[in-house]
Amino acid sequence: MTWDWNFVLKILPRLMDGVWYTVLITLASSAIALGGGLVLAILETVSTTFGQAFVRFWLELFRGVPTLVLLYFTFYVLPEFGIVLPAVPIGIAVLGIVYAAYCSEVYRGSLITIPAELRDACVALHLSPYITWQRVLAPLMIKRAAPALLNYVLGLFRETAVLFALGVPVLMGEAHEVGYENFRFLEPYTLAGVIYLGMNLPFLYLLSKLKDKHA
Amino acid sequence: MRAVLQYWPVLVQGLCITVWVAVWVILGSVPGAVILGALRLSERRVFRLASMLFIEFIRAPSALVLLFWVFYALPLVPGMPRLSPLTAAILVLALDGAAYGAEMVRAGIQAVHVGQTDACHALGLSKLQSFTKVILPQALSQIVPNFGSLARSMVKWTAIVSFVGVQDLLYIGNNIRGQTFDAVTVFCLLATLYWILTVLCGVAFRVLEQVLPLNRALRAARMPSQAAPEADVQGGAQ
Amino acid sequence: MLNTGESSHSGPLVPRAAAASKTFEPHGSAPKSQQVRWAIEFEKVSNSFGAYPVLVDLDLQVRPGEKVTLIGPSGSGKTTVLRLAMTLAKPTSGDIKIFGESILFDMAGKPLSGSQEARIRRRCGMVFQHFNLFPHLTVLQNLIVAPTAVLKQSKEQAEESALEYLHMVGLQDKARAYPAQLSGGQQQRIAIARALVIKPEILLLDEITSALDPELAGEVLDVVRGVAHRSKVSMLIVTHEMRFAREVSDRIAVFDRGRIIEQGPPEKIFSHPDSERTRAFLQSVLNH
Q: Could you name the CATH architecture of C39-286?
């Protein structure tokens, strides 16, 4: 089978739809992951016993169980409880929650590198706990955690491909569909690979920038 | 629940396939990770650049995209082989593991004190000898724990092989769900089995850490000074 | 004697240390080396770190068997001299010769290949400020790595000679210990034994007591004194221990800002140096 440029032009719009979905899902899941992770990390530091047990449990669960199994579980089990959701929100929620657990660990890791003297200083300045977190600790924590967090967002982006298993039209899903409709696999999968490769470049650029800043 | 458990013989088969794939993926990724990681620190710019590009090239599309490409698209390229689902799956996942592991190897090597390289040079060891006898054994103490958590991830990665028709745990589980319509039991069971596998994998690496040369040396140093020489004689005699 | 075949060649050149029970014969010195005047020779060697000059047109020669100590303020380029000799660094310009053979260029003036360089640098051994023992290997394993891997000795042969050298540094009972189980002084004595098992003709000692507590430095210096008096290995030493330098050296070279400002026998340098800078430097370290 030889490479057919006409076929490429024909399927490109469909693949671009897939790119659009991939971007959308990556953004939405990252928002949940980054925000939820921060909340979990703060919860864990503020309420040690409950927060820690809660986060530990989720972390251990997500460390040991493939995302695919979690996706299938949510997809097939929720309807049994009368909750029928389309595949896209399920995908966004599962990826977001899994990565929120990972991100909370990153936040916590960066929090312990903030010297205790800084908290003492906040107390000495009579800052309320809320202000201390909002103006001092959280910004510092996020700044230090940025490279590791970005790495997780990159990982999340790469993992969006598995959502095609639920029929979500991410780039991988579109390539798969188009391939089956036309019984031509060379162009769709190769194009999908190249586009995924290209979509990594902004991440790698940002990561190298951040690394330079921290070095 | 009982309906699902009736299928235990096929479940065990699926579990065995998953373990088989995971073991080969983990073992297969080790040499690739060491070679790529060492090349990342080569004195030659060409090697550094080539290995970096290769690593990013493998990691950039997820393993899933790579697997579909290797399985469906690669055989269409003239002169390329048609791989069996199992071979394609192990090859792709091992490559992905090697790419992620390479960064751990690189970091581990960089963490070895530069004086060790100087000492090797002064003793006349060749580059390869320095690497295999001195640098890598010490770097392993940092690499192995990190590689252990990567290996746990690799066990999870194997779930995607069901997409190309390898009848692993997830594939069997999905079939059973189709026949029993008991999704809760099936997926709770799958989650538990995967979780146990990853925990066992973590334990295996914890054990491996104990026998690493540098860790053994440091443990010997922590022992009470009286007992130490005796134990060392035995250790050396083995 | 460890290596009687070669002793007759080098005999006329270097007076054999009288009746020493333990003599460190050079390993594999080619017959042509007997015509060579210098064990090591720096010819107009310059080196810079970025724009900052570390060594400026250095000329320095060491005779076979001679013990030369480099002294001078920190940052004056002494350690760089040793690292250049050990090919741990490359000079910006100039040439360095080990027994008449350049460690940088071949006869045609082209840079040496890795294997050519390895053959020549095998005649040098080095002891480092921070010991650089291999922490994952036992003392005995540390000592046999190079003999087995580089000199292709059998394990038994290498262990036998390693134990002799351990005996010489007084640590034969520590053969099976790991470096982390030893004191700093003991570690450095092991490092000296490790450098000597490959029977170097030139021994480079780089501030070998600087990382040690004063009470541990003595045992290390005693070992070096023993080696210096009993063997005909050439030594190039960098140290801040002025008394030790005076005892052990045949010649002292005073470094300042990348140049040798004065050199001569220790008595002269310490008692009536020519240079005002030397006097100032000695005063600063001796009053310390």
A: 3-Layer(aba) Sandwich (3.40)
